[in-house]
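Entry for flavin mononucleotide complex. Fields follow.
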Amino acid sequence: MRPFIQDLAAKHHFQPTRLLEMLREIQARDHHVSNEAVELLAEALRIPRTRLIDAIEFYSFFSSTPKGRYELRISDSITDKMLGKDALIDYLSEKLRVPVGGVRSDGLVSLDNTSCTGMCDQGPAGLVNGHALTRLDRARIDRIAGLIERQVPLAEWPSEFFHAEDNIRKPDLLLGQPIAQGEGLKAAYARGLNQTLAEIDASGLRGRGGAGFKTAAKWRFCAEEAESERYVVCNADEGEPGTFKDRVLLNAFADQVFEGMTLCAAIVGAKHGFLYLRGEYLHLYDKLQTILAHRREAGLLGRGILGRNFDFDIEIRLGAGAYICGEESALIESLEGKSGIPRNRPPYPVTHGYLGKPTVVNNVESFFAAAAIAVHGGAWFAAHGAEKSKGTKILSISGDCARPGIYEYPFGTPARTILDECGAEDVLGAQIGGPSGTFISNREFDRLLAFEDLATGGSFIVFDNRRNILDIARNFTHFFAHESCGFCTPCRVGTSLLRKQLDKIYDGYGSAGDVAALDEICRLVKTYSHCGLGQTAANPVLTTLARYPEAYESRLKKISYEPGFDLDAELETARRLANRSDAAAHLSQTGE
Amino acid sequence: MSKTFTLDGQPIPFSTGQTIIDAALDAGVYIPHLCHHPDYTPHGSCKLCSVIVNGRVCSACTFPAAEGQEVLSHTDELNEDRRRITQMLFVEGNHLCPGCEKSGDCKLQAVGYYLGMHDNHFVHFFSPRKLDASHPDVLLDLNRCIFCTLCVRASREKDGKDVFAISGRGINKHLIANSASGLLKDTDLEASDRAAHICPTGAILIKRTGYTTPIGARDYDHQTIAEVSLERERETHDG
Ligand SMILES: Cc1cc2nc3c(=O)[nH]c(=O)nc-3n(C[C@H](O)[C@H](O)[C@H](O)COP(=O)(O)O)c2cc1C
Ligand code: SF4
Ligand code: SF4
Ligand code: FES
Ligand code: FES
């Protein structure tokens, strides 16, 4: 163990910021991070062992006790469930003789649930030793079980098990005309960097990760900071259930995304960039490294980019299973090798980001669009879209529709158009923007996709009339309770209380007061939580409760309060002593 | 010190870089808090100090004071919600106040009294939590830990050690001690460390000192937490 850890630490230059990478390698080799590994690595990196223990316990893909040599994780998201995930995991559990959440006694295989893996258009999905599995069904599970029993190495498994389709169904402005390698940077230098920033400003581009902050303004703030060192970070964490467009952009258009990052670096004056790639997208890692290498050879990364006095390079860092790391300040903490706990604001990342230096964090699609704007100009982009939402938005559509996949629409498109084009029928409603977004019912399909109406990071999940509202709200509520980082009281305790309270109603043990209690917890979690996770964690309940109160009420006991004993019988002694038997001396169970 | 903001309508002077809570404390106004102590880097996790700054909810312990800010703190709504947040902390852990050696000296309990908390309101988690009695002089009872990280910060910032850390995610968070065995006895904690005395609850206790001050004669038996806080925390802050 000692030489392995020593080599590992040396390979990562003894940099504690690279802790996650090191833990990933240990986990991949040993299927857990042992106490011994913790001690040796802490010593090599000269950091307290508690920092390692915290990281191991924080990230879902690390474990302090041994997992199987084949670590299986099955996505527990709502679309996977709609595709029969629950029966499949039971089948898998039976077939491999391993309980869900457990390890088989011979240590060969372990089985767990995991949050959305970003394969929502080709689920039920899962992971084996971090590699994505798509389109699971019984036949495929039979074959996987066989391979595991025979201990066939992953490299020899049929490649179709891991195949991820891009499923680009409707290209528009951006997906329809990708730029050539280097074209964006050349155009920017030809026009002038300041002028290019002005074009991005004129394009009206707003961040595609959900919050919609103006991209040009973010870049300008960062450029104006007095510090000399700056960073550009591409947020490819994409953890919002139902979102997978960044996966497709990185698989099919990575060059253009890297071009956008490099453009940003040229404008703000950064030398270092990071692509923070969610652990679930490990399958993209090698391919992306190759593309970076090509860009270096082509003089588009590294020293003296395009023969100019401009040095910039991009490093890929992998996450390890934590939705909260998509939140930009948690992402930065994670890049620094820590657990993903959102920072206090102010200060904001543009002034105090990675290692305290000015940092731009943008979504994959934002960089992708910025590169195209550098080529085609701001007016080209601004000519499309809505008043306050310029250009187009790339959507990941999944759920009950004939053609799940990637669609690009101008902002301002009504939900109805989108539903028609993806082949959705008999629709109950749609979840826009993932669990943290809004549920719209079938009476609201004229609403528009835009920051001024339905804002979204890209998740668009369709539900048809076979589906139950409470199943949906419950799945999302459990998701948030599982993914809360636990830093602040209202979210740490509140999301768990919300889960318990909703389950009580779901399971038929609720009475009228329980819906009011549910509502109160929602308000507390939403109002007082530290970051966007907690502030939106109650949305699934709030948006469905507002639209379908009857779905909740139908599960309630019909009395307003259900005592655990017979109130009237308890008064018998008192009545005898008082020598009364009139009507006023009797109580009925309340609420009937 | 010429700059001011208003807190519940009252002008509060502050110096540049000061947080709302510290400026308020200096001006003699108590804002309920548990994870904050002016001697340590602000943390912002308990959310008891939530105030409304120009219409937005902010944590007074991390939010910088600014000229002309209008801050609301002592409103019925905020105090009711603070009571709920305190109740969340009570049901998350296992707080058996009548049997706790810290009763009467406990900030969590005192804040509960201050906010008029008469029951726990929420369902209890009853989560199994550890007790570490291995250290000769210090007892660690995680049933009462509220993850304020004051011990973590005190150990790092004042004792120059790194005895404690909070580990894990979500509701599974827990306090860990920095030793290969995980036991407190194998850390370099000493009973005279600041970290051993800063805990606002009874999670970290000094052994053989229980009941030296009898119940009835303890800090919060005489004074509210607002009075104690203004007296003590201002003192340390000025010093
Ligand atoms: C809990 C949470 C998760 C988030 N996840 C992502 C994500 O996966 N990808 C992303 O781009 N932004 C995510 N965000 C938003 C980021 O914090 C940030 O606003 C965004 O990366 C900024 O980039 P943009 O301006 O290009 O949208 C998340 C925010 C929160 C609160
Ligand atoms: S709101 Fe939730 S996720 Fe955000 S900091 Fe608080 S506990 Fe963590
Ligand atoms: S042990 Fe006490 S001081 Fe330390 S985090 Fe827990 S409650 Fe806070
Ligand atoms: S992977 Fe299943 S919903 Fe995303
Ligand atoms: S005192 Fe401010 S959040 Fe705890």
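NOTE: Chain A has a mean pLDDT of 96.
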